[in-house]
Amino acid sequence: MVSIKQLVEIITSNIESTGFPIPIPSEIIYEWAIPLKLPRRKKRVLYTGALYQLVPYINSLVKYLESLEERDTIASITLKTARVFTKISLFRKIVLRVREEEVERIYKILRSIAMLLIENNIDYGYLYEDDLYSGVLLYDMGLEDRFAKHAEKVNKVFKKLGVEEVITIDPHTTYTLRQLYPKYIDRFDINVVNYLEILSSIEELKIKHYGNSLKYVIHDPCYYTRFENIIEEPRKLLLRAGIQIVEPRRAKELTYCCGGPIESIFPSLAGAIAEARLEELREYSTQIITLCPICLANFSRVSQKLGVSIRDIASLLGGGDE
Prior knowledge:
This protein is an alpha/beta fold. It is globular and about 45 Å long. Strand 3, helix 9 and strand 4 form a beta-alpha-beta unit. Helix 3 runs antiparallel to helix 6 and helix 3 runs parallel beside helix 14. The strands form 2 sheets. The protein has a 4-stranded parallel sheet. The chain folds into 2 domains: 196 residues, no CATH class; 112 residues, Rossmann fold (3-Layer(aba) Sandwich). The two termini are 35 Å apart.
């Protein structure tokens, strides 16, 4: 088996040295926003926390780790070696073989979110190279001291840029900033609002409308429903877009895990959980809506095997084609 200790060391080393759990090209984080020419300096900013951008690289790394799980000696040697060059491009070339179309799919989702806000007259800026990872995986792994240190780094960037409010776009980052940062950062006073909350509160909402021609089963992410009470907002938005929603047996507060974020530690287990959830969801529809990049990542690795289609809610509301 792949050593969990070694994996944790690699992940934490990457976060401390590059700011991200995987050594990705820094421009991947903000390149999607360049064509939109989003303003830089605003008191309210879009903060992605880099989770969507990490999806193609997470999937590539998980596939690599799965291939090592039954090869104990090679796995141990490879992971020990990986610690030496986590900062350089060789690691990316060997392990993180990501296709351009996978990155572009994520870019389209991010642009859909950005354009939904713009088209509905929400004034905001973007952080570009300062759009840092929230550090949530450090907390998930029980490394509270390292999480606190990373959170302080992110907060200092907010303060330096005069940020007073952030718009988050995923459940993990929303939970981290709302629930965790105030516990680990003295006088954390940044207002945190999720983009689904913003859009669902707009009366004259401008979104793509499908005329009730589409039917999707909805998969609720754990952090939205159990910790942030973001449950009705996505449903209201989908209904306003003319999308028929099918509710699975385990939905809302009783939703079932997608398998993340343990995929980097237990890739096979994460895959098994994802398969179990998709098998349950496809009883209702083979068209599945996700609201979270981690859910999107875990499901997309096994969706073809199970004959289902996965769409992110933003791409549907914005009319973007993933």
